[in-house]
Amino acid sequence: MPIIVRLDVMLARRKMSLSALAAAVDITLANLSILKSDKAKAIRFSTLEAICQVLECQPGDLLEFVPDEDSSPRPSH
Protein backbone atom coordinates (compact mmCIF):
# COMPACT_ATOMS: atom_id res chain seq x y z
CA MET A 1 0.00 0.00 0.00
CA PRO A 2 1.53 3.35 -0.98
CA ILE A 3 0.35 5.26 2.14
CA ILE A 4 2.14 4.24 5.34
CA VAL A 5 0.79 5.26 8.76
CA ARG A 6 3.56 6.31 11.17
CA LEU A 7 1.37 6.55 14.27
CA ASP A 8 3.71 4.31 16.28
CA VAL A 9 6.62 6.69 15.65
CA MET A 10 4.67 9.75 16.81
CA LEU A 11 3.35 7.93 19.88
CA ALA A 12 6.91 7.01 20.84
CA ARG A 13 8.09 10.61 20.33
CA ARG A 14 5.27 11.90 22.53
CA LYS A 15 5.74 9.07 25.06
CA MET A 16 2.03 8.29 24.86
CA SER A 17 0.33 4.92 24.89
CA LEU A 18 -2.21 3.83 22.32
CA SER A 19 -4.85 3.56 25.06
CA ALA A 20 -4.19 7.12 26.25
CA LEU A 21 -4.53 8.39 22.68
CA ALA A 22 -7.73 6.38 22.18
CA ALA A 23 -9.25 7.97 25.29
CA ALA A 24 -8.11 11.48 24.33
CA VAL A 25 -9.42 11.19 20.76
CA ASP A 26 -12.57 9.28 21.78
CA ILE A 27 -11.96 6.41 19.35
CA THR A 28 -12.03 2.73 20.18
CA LEU A 29 -8.71 1.07 20.94
CA ALA A 30 -9.53 -1.55 18.30
CA ASN A 31 -9.96 1.07 15.55
CA LEU A 32 -6.81 2.90 16.61
CA SER A 33 -4.91 -0.40 16.58
CA ILE A 34 -6.04 -1.01 13.00
CA LEU A 35 -4.71 2.42 12.06
CA LYS A 36 -1.44 1.87 13.94
CA SER A 37 -0.86 -1.54 12.38
CA ASP A 38 -1.24 0.02 8.92
CA LYS A 39 -4.29 -2.10 8.08
CA ALA A 40 -6.76 0.78 7.75
CA LYS A 41 -8.16 1.48 4.30
CA ALA A 42 -9.32 5.02 5.14
CA ILE A 43 -9.35 7.64 7.88
CA ARG A 44 -11.84 10.42 8.44
CA PHE A 45 -10.45 13.92 8.40
CA SER A 46 -12.11 14.56 11.77
CA THR A 47 -10.22 11.60 13.24
CA LEU A 48 -6.96 12.71 11.68
CA GLU A 49 -7.54 16.23 12.99
CA ALA A 50 -8.22 14.96 16.52
CA ILE A 51 -5.10 12.76 16.50
CA CYS A 52 -2.97 15.67 15.24
CA GLN A 53 -4.40 17.95 17.90
CA VAL A 54 -3.66 15.52 20.74
CA LEU A 55 -0.20 14.59 19.45
CA GLU A 56 0.58 18.20 18.46
CA CYS A 57 1.69 17.21 14.98
CA GLN A 58 0.83 17.64 11.32
CA PRO A 59 -0.86 15.02 9.09
CA GLY A 60 2.47 14.62 7.26
CA ASP A 61 4.05 13.49 10.52
CA LEU A 62 1.62 10.55 10.59
CA LEU A 63 1.24 9.66 6.91
CA GLU A 64 3.92 8.88 4.35
CA PHE A 65 3.48 8.23 0.64
CA VAL A 66 5.71 5.43 -0.64
CA PRO A 67 5.06 4.68 -4.31
CA ASP A 68 4.92 1.07 -5.43
CA GLU A 69 8.02 0.03 -7.32
CA ASP A 70 5.97 -1.45 -10.14
CA SER A 71 3.61 1.50 -10.52
CA SER A 72 4.15 3.93 -13.34
CA PRO A 73 3.64 7.67 -12.99
CA ARG A 74 0.13 8.92 -13.71
CA PRO A 75 -0.24 11.15 -16.74
CA SER A 76 -0.88 14.80 -15.95
CA HIS A 77 -3.87 16.56 -17.45
Automatic annotation (TrEMBL):
<protein>
    <submittedName>
        <fullName>Helix-turn-helix transcriptional regulator</fullName>
    </submittedName>
</protein>
<dbReference type="InterPro" id="IPR010982">
    <property type="entry name" value="Lambda_DNA-bd_dom_sf"/>
</dbReference>
<dbReference type="Pfam" id="PF13443">
    <property type="entry name" value="HTH_26"/>
</dbReference>
<keyword id="KW-0732">Signal</keyword>
<dbReference type="GO" id="GO:0003677">
    <property type="term" value="F:DNA binding"/>
</dbReference>
<dbReference type="InterPro" id="IPR001387">
    <property type="entry name" value="Cro/C1-type_HTH"/>
</dbReference>
<feature type="domain" description="HTH cro/C1-type">
    <location>
        <begin position="13"/>
        <end position="62"/>
    </location>
</feature>
<feature type="signal peptide">
    <location>
        <begin position="1"/>
        <end position="22"/>
    </location>
</feature>
